[in-house]
Amino acid sequence: MARIDQNLYLKNSVVLLRLFIGWHFLYEAVIKLYNPDWTAFGYLATAQGPLRGFYVALTNESLIGTVDMLNTFTLLFVGLTLTLGIFEKWGAFAGIGILALYYLAHPPFPGAIQMNVEGNYWFVNKILIELIACAIILLYPTGRYFGLGHLFQPEQKTLKTENP
């Protein structure tokens, strides 16, 4: 019986993790959608680390509008999939991708100047923690348990066997 309780606690914990991360992504998307002045320009222009050139190139006038739109769309997609518990593997994968891009734009490496970040970190920051949490959701989806995932997954058939 203790094993059943542990599995139930694990499922419930991952559901809460999924809902909270989904809410965070959804909130960030909505804030960006309703703020016509929002742009990723400042974040990208102040990028540090080995990929600085890539991020600064994204601030080009011909690209920044597309970058802003893709950023907002990805946040919305991850937020909806994780909050609703539908296609959450896709959402978790997209979340990992965008969080990796955020992390690498301002990596908290020793000796690096920390700009546009909330505090001083050494390798591990809030972005990396949320990225790892998305990896857990990717590996342990719960949408079928608590969410709309059961609507899009085929029923699992059980085979009945005769007892000898």
TrEMBL record:
Organism: Sediminicola luteus
Entry superkingdom: Bacteria
Protein name per Swiss-Prot or TrEMBL: DoxX subfamily
Transmembrane parts of this sequence: 12-34, 54-78, 90-109, 121-140
Keyword Membrane appears in the UniProt entry: yes
Keywords, in A-Z order: Membrane, Transmembrane, Transmembrane helix
Lineage: Bacteria, Pseudomonadati, Bacteroidota, Flavobacteriia, Flavobacteriales
